[in-house]
Amino acid sequence: MISNSATSNSADIIVAGHICLDIIPSFSAEQTRLDELIVPGKLVQIGPAMMAMGGPVSNTGLSLFRLGVPVSLMGKVGDDALGHAMLDILSGHDSALAAGMLVVPGENSSYTLVMNPPGVDRCFLHCSGANDTFAPEDVPYDKLTGGKIFHFGYPPLMEQMFAHGGGPMSQIFAQVKAAGVATSLDMAMPDPQSAAGRLDWKSWLAEVLPQVDIFLPSAEEILFMIHRQRFDAATASGAADLAAHVDGDLLADVADELIDLGAAVVGLKLGDQGLYLRTSQDAPERLASIHPALAESSWAGRDLITPCFQVEVVGTTGSGDATIAGFLAALLRGESPEAAVTSAVAVGACNVEAADSTSGVRVWSDTEKRIEAGWDRHEVAISPAAWQPTAVAGVLAGGRDAAR
User: Which CATH superfamily is domain 8-15+59-73+131-397 in?
Assistant: First the structure.
């Protein structure tokens, strides 16, 4: 057990939002095609299932905990077997981690069946359960005192967070900022056929992002939400991983659009292509409450991309959430933008070395030693060629704005 005093009153980062129980079947090395596994009327022999926590409250929260960051969790579960299983898992790490959870009699807890064959990006069968009733009044704002960052994840999978436009989410963040705590937001890909999939997400973001200091969606999610035609065109062409089909100009355009909507820091997760970062001119002012070093001009108007570290991939569940944990932990340490994106992809790389969503994450000092030892990286495949390596190993400065 890792001990880091994860009590509500001492937490530097509060992670709120979606939480569920992941049920992860195991597959043999030969079972690498989902279209051959999921066939009507066919019985497929698989291995034992692993049960683990899912969603950003647990994935990002437990990743931060394993890094050694004081963290508290805020999520909603039912008073049922699945809910109690989740509380038991959290308490197994540290009893304080379950203390902030809201347990509601009569509601169903959320669960996800994670299909993650070797070498194949995962897919999910998901029940939102009690997440759909999570509302602004469920956040215990009095427990934010002393916190540095409030991170909220997956509102597209939480009905009350999108059914009434961006108002409820904006309300939460406004109260968090009034408490002097920086805000962070992660998204999720909605089912295109669901109410969330049909929502006008650009209008939702226009209402919410003025209250968001750090915005960390995936490239796929944000293209689906604000550039649906481009997303549909790429997926219609058979692109299995949309992040591999974007270029630097598109990333910069999308990030600029999000900054214009109000975000100070935009990080676009690119799967195995790495992490893209773009910041506003007022980012130092908006990040200063996290760590004094973030008030430096090095955080103003930045445009960076960093590739992933090379690892043997066992499972990709929770990799984006772990990447976020690495980035937020780096902000707490007052790291430079270059170091922060490196920290982010390092934690994400450790994550995919395990089948579940968090056990691959190491204490930060161990991860840091791995980086300093010359951990190999993948080549960056994203164009334009104007992106050239800087003195920081593996980090590329933005081609269009490299002089900023």
Answer: Ribokinase (3.40.1190.20)
